[in-house]
Amino acid sequence: MKIIYKDGHVDECPQDQELHVIRHTAAHVMAQAIKRLYPQADFAFGPATENGFYYDVDLGDQKLSDEDLANIEKEMRKIVKENLPIKPFILPRAEAEKLMEERQEHYKVEHMADLADETEFSFFQQGEYVDMCIGPHLTYTKALKAFKITQQSGAYWKNDKENKMLTRINGVAFRNQEELDAWEKEQQEARERDHRKIGKEMGLFMTDDLVGRGLPMFLPAGYTVWQELENYIKEKERKRGYLHVMTPCVGTVNLYKTSGHWDHYRENMFPAMEMEGESYVLRPMNCPHHMMIYANRPHSYRDLPMRIGEIAHDFRYESSGTLKGIERGRHFCQNDAHLFCTPEQIKSEVADVCNLIFEVYKDFNITDYRCVLSLRDPADKKKYHDDDAMWNHAESALREVLTELGIHFTEEIGEAAFYGPKLDVNVKPAVGAEYTLSTCQLDFCLPAKFHLTYVDKDGSEKTPVVLHRAILGSLDRFMAYLIEETKGKFPTWLAPTQVKVLPVSEKTLEYAQDVTEKLADAGVRVVLDDDNQKIGYKIRAAQQVDRVPYMLVLGAKEAEAGNISVRDRKGETTEMSLEDFIAKVTTEIRTRSL
């Protein structure tokens, strides 16, 4: 694939850069199409991204519809068919500024002013369209083979909410139509798996703007799943000596000033509330509360490690554009814990956390994941607690422990918590990009800030080390992950409705009621479908909407024989006694079988 660089030379594109160049060119072609259709358009930024491309544009009072997006894509295809050559040129600053001013590119002019050290600027032109850009690009518009406009959204100029809201138009582009077709197939799969769609169908959770965006509410079926996950992880933690607590969802601003969150995390927190001369905030995380629980009484080295756990309600001020059902909201419940230990116990405690993570992943058949050692960016003095010696010690300690444990990991700069390095376990879902599910953070910072101590063997006072860890992450996100992985077909122990009893007609309703009662007495979550509908409709509703593991179809034959007809998710039907079925399903529930 030939590409042209800003100095005008043409060369073969390195294979690992092909998609980036294609998508960058697509952004220019899209901008040209927009300018043809909307001459008043004033363009901001238009980069290629990991998943496609976009352009932020000021369209004045013009609002775009889906039909408008289709027309822009249609105009792009015309430009491709015109096979316009893409030509670069370079201008000194004064001429570059004059060109952009003449073309009414106000955002480009402002951006040039931000690039104070640049004495010249490169541009690329195709037909009547000119864009300031460093390239490289395809050599002709016809080389753009496969693309699609996907959506529009709002975006602040320079990502600053104090600036004007622009229209962001997104698209995707690929090397060929086959790759685009594969992407569209993946998108269809993503839509079918979307936990928001499945959650609505199954009645798991809901949102309402009157309550507030990003504040999901769990309905009875969804809260059943939520409670099962809570019971599951608490049971595992109790076996490891965790002590569960409950702490308030608010705290004083002074609490978060002490921890450092007020300085390093305030933009992600809800605004402070004033009451009786004191300022309070909804908590974004729980570590300050747990620090205070530790500080509640004196401690000896004999008390350590001390493992404090909580399923804690947290609130973070996420921008509306990032909200996504229960995967990312403004309220969520962390499977949180803080482990207070001596320096000598760091290795064993990190090992135990890692073992718990991998044990949980095995229980849920999570196999596609990778471990990342997240480190600070030493140049970023604003984001991270400023103590080089502490950081060097903490990062070296965590790196050494992970290496000794034989855990394969990669390192990423700039992804640490503000107070310390962390191990992140990133999962790759069935569709979409990977994200962090579990984490274990090593912290020498907060215990010192809160003046936490323990009396060591020699009688001296020392500062404990703290491990911040989350296994399921948040129950909300973990549940969203499971919904999308299973398409709502939870394992029997986790399913909101484990068995649905389907009488064929009113003649077998009395027998169905008896079967339902016996299943309920055995501790099975069972629902009797006594609606006056045909059996085929009942089966489809149980299978496709409720996604129940088992359906008991009870006709005259079953009632007369006193047995049941069991239909599973695969559509296979088995005749058996009710006693045998109860033994089977309760074993699956008790053992949490997948």
TrEMBL record:
Xref: SMART domains: tRNA_SAD
UniProt domain Aminoacyl-transfer RNA synthetases class-II family profile: residue ranges: 194-491
Signal peptide start and end residues: none
Co-factor(s): Zn(2+)
Subcellular location: Cytoplasm
Keywords, in A-Z order: Aminoacyl-tRNA synthetase, ATP-binding, Cytoplasm, Ligase, Metal-binding, Nucleotide-binding, Protein biosynthesis, RNA-binding, tRNA-binding, Zinc
Record-linked InterPro entries: aa-tRNA-synt_IIb, aa-tRNA-synth_II, aa-tRNA-synth_II/BPL/LPL, Anticodon-bd, Anticodon-bd_dom_sf, Thr-tRNA-ligase_IIa, Thr/Ala-tRNA-synth_IIc_edit, ThrRS_anticodon
Residues engaged in binding Zn(2+): C287, H338, H468
Cofactor binding summary note: Binds 1 zinc ion per subunit.
Catalytic reactions on record: tRNA(Thr) + L-threonine + ATP = L-threonyl-tRNA(Thr) + AMP + diphosphate + H(+)
NCBIfam families to which the protein is assigned, alphabetical: thrS
Quaternary context: Homodimer.
Protein name: Threonine--tRNA ligase
Organism field: Faecalibacterium prausnitzii
